Every structure is written in structure tokens, then in C-alpha cells.
Fold:
Amino acid sequence: MKKIILCALVASATLMAADSAPVYKSGVLLPANGEAIYKQDCIQCHSADGKQTTMDSSTRVKYAPINGLDAAKLAKELKDYRYGSINKYGYGQLMKSTLIDLSYEEIDALAEYISTNIK
Structure:
């Protein structure tokens, strides 16, 4: 009886884990996944279409859309944000904290994803 209950418990835990979306972990020895990084770290501010403005208290703050940007230029800008050398629209620290754990390969994959898939 204990074995049956244990098996049912393990099976239900496995099914619940399968329903949740996997979290992208930077630095894991897997190929860089630009789509997963965008959905996990960028979509909250930039939205699915890359055009969203963000909220600053009760004031809407407008910044340039990121959809359709050149991948090489975007990758360079993201790397500059990562190292704190730019601060466009006052979001330098936020962008730096978002990008600091990403490798060059992950930033390149993210830039490529934004350039080709965010319309």
C-alpha cells in the first residue's frame, strides 16, 4: 500500500512539474536560447511585439521600440548596457542588472531573436 501511495505521489509531482514552464538558466552548458531569455527577462518591459512603453509610478515613460533592430548593433548595445557604459532613457542600471549574468553568446542569441522574430 505504501508503494502505491508513493508511486502516485511521485507521478502527480512529475505531472505538476511538466505543466510549469522551464526557467532559462544562464551559464548552463546548453545552447544559448534567445527566445527563452526574451520571454524570461525582456517581455515584461518590451512586450511581445517589442514596442511597449513602461510605467514609472503613474507616468508613462517612452523609449525606442526594439523590434526589427539590426542584430549586430543591438548585440553591441546590449553588451554596452551589460558593462554599464550606456544609460539610455535612464534605464542603464535596470538593463545592466538584467544582462549581467548573460554570456556574449547568450546576448548574441538574444539580439538575433529580437532582430528576426520580434515584429
